[in-house]
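Before relying on records like the one below, remember that each one covers exactly one chain. Contacts with other chains, cofactors or solvent are not represented anywhere in the record.
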Amino acid sequence: MQNICHLSASLPPAVLQLLAGMLALDVDVIQNCWATLMEHRLAPRQGYSECC
């Protein structure tokens, strides 16, 4: 799951929606994950371990 979060930081919203559909995840979960990553940009490991 951490890889998903890491990738989501650089993907546009439309791609996130497609990814969410393919993985049967809620788009909100991925977007929340992305927001968490941005908050923890200086400590990305902490960011995506928290969101995923």
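Residues 17 and 26 are 8 Å apart (CA to CA).
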